[in-house]
Amino acid sequence: MTLSDVVAMERRFPGVDDGRKTAAVLAEHGLSMTRYQQRLNALVDDPAFVVTMPAHARLLRQRRARLSRGRRLTSAG
Fold first, then answer.
1. pLDDT tens digits for 35-72?
2. 33: how many CB neighbours lie within 10 A of its CB?
3. DSSP 45
């Protein structure tokens, strides 16, 4: 999966996954959603990606932080 593949997927399926994104990731890239998220997180931390697409990197980092905060609050409760 390339940088452009990830960006295209995130543009097609922004926000919360309702199952369509999971199905598309599996069909188009042969990846589980967990593996896709691992690759996405690695990409967001890649300096080359940040330089190439700073706005997109910032949005993805913000989404990751928001989801992480939500998981921490849910597991702490």
1. 998 988 888 889 988 898 888 889 889 988 888 876 66
2. 14
3. T
Task: Give first-to-last CA distance, the chain, whole Å.
Answer: 37
Q: What is the domain count for the chain?
A: 1
CA 9 to chain centre: 9
pLDDT per residue as tens digits for the range 24-33:
999 999 999 9
Question: Which residues contact residue 29 at a Cβ distance below 8 angstroms, ignoring those fewer than 6 apart?
Answer: 1, 5, 36
Hey, what are 69's tokens? 């905060």
Give pTM, 2 decimals.
Answer: 0.71
Quote the domain boundaries for residue 29. Answer: 3-76
